[in-house]
Amino acid sequence: MSDFDVDVVVVGLGPTGLTLANLLGRRGVRVLVLEREPEYYGMARAVYTDDEGMRVFQTAGAADELAADMNVDSTVQWVRGDGSVLAQFHQTDRPLGWPVVNFLYQPYLENTLERALDRYPHVTVRRGREAVDFDQDADGVHVEHAECRGTGYGKRPADTDPRTAERVRAKFLVGCDGGRSVVRTKLGIEMSGTSFPERWLVVDLRARDGVDAFRHLPYFNFVCDPELPIVSCPQPDRHHRFEFMLSESQTKAEMEDPETVRRYIARFVDPDEVEVLRKLVYTFNAVVADRWRDGRILVAGDAAHMTPQFIGQGMNSGVRDADNLSWKLTAIIEHGAALDILDSYESERRPHAKAMIDLSVLNKQIVSLDNKLLAAARDIGLTTALRVPGLGGWIRGAKMKPRPRFRRGAYLGLPRRVLRGIEGTLAPQPDIRDYNGRHRRLDEALGIGFAVLGYGTDPRRAFGPEQLAFLRGLDAAFVTVYPLGGRPQGKPGDGRDDVTDIEDHTGTLTRWFGKAGLRPGGVLVLRPDRFVFGAAAAGHGASLVTELARQLGIFPMSRAEQPDTRAQYEQA
Known about the structure:
The chain is an alpha+beta fold. The protein is built from 16 helices and 26 strands.
């Protein structure tokens, strides 16, 4: 340990870097965060997070504070130019314990996450320090960083003073430094995909004190107007964003002119009632890095993939990256897992990030049609589809969003069964009831590490002493799940043990177990990111833990010594 100054160097203090630093910090990992901009940006970029993102923030210990500053459960709409509704998307169910729709003001989110890092004395944040060079060997990474006066967030070249250089040694380096990533560039990693020529004007507003300027704009609107496609986004605390698609003839200087901005927003608000916080013409990219890892150096967030803004998933993809990486880095650093478990980072995250990019591009194409005939055909097709049984509900529920489900054969976990397979999928997070009768979210009972759930049974009974020792070495939580009314009743002193027991009073977990073919007495292992590693029927828990140890590489075995865990699992 004395050979390393820190465990992980994180480059970049945006949402991805902040989330990763919080997750690692909460798990006891020593982190140094380097941010080349000496001053906080203070402007909104991302505007939305979903229930998956909120669940990650919950693991980071910040979700409730973040939620207090969010506009939640808003309806999302496609509307015509006159404001009449083409389609509404309602997502008020909470399968992961949080609202699916959460509109945010990014400065509030980043400030909250940065304050949260103060809890961890083993996490150090250094603003105004740029990572200027790095090199790695088999055991770690040397990172050289120097004082930087910033770039004005991309407005000018970095002003770095080489005389202030310092060198730090870490076990891993993670570049969360955005689309212009220095880490990715120095590694020579290219990005593949499409850069779109269409330009949009983004205008961020705040209502002036004492004025209710946005009450008439309660929902998120994609204005599908062939004359002028627009995005209208409500945000917390009297903030609102508009995005206007530009024509080829309109120049950046013309569109960012205050009088032009005033004329455009006057279609929706009284310009005298609002303050313009930001106005910017931008284009967007739909690209993915060709590689996400080079030995002990990784990239995440916009450094690994850039998502168009049309479904609000750019920041959320980075948050998912941080969740995936954080527990794997912790398993290596704290529990001795093999380095090659990091191979699953890209194989798990790339397909989902790419699917989000593809959906965003599709929505962009739907919203931004500027041909009147094609726009009319779109409107007719959409309104017709909404009347089709099944299809209409699928559209209104926004079920086209990619599911949190890893591609078969490309994840850390047992192979997904053809029937009733839940391996490699994200577990639900229902409200549960503890033995004191208090309601909690499921993950609050599971902790932040691996979790072993027993269906109506103490899951520890499924394993021998060596397997229990292995699970305890991972700091795994053991949880018994009882169905509603299914808690055992007995004599004084019965049930006094250190296993956590919860009651599934909503029936969500019981139904999920049933769909997965898990019967009472069975056990299930959840990864720290709450994706399912695997499940086993009563009497077959040993093979489950043996396979977990093998895939983590903590108990290396020769091929001759490895049991046929896949065959045992499928038989179970």
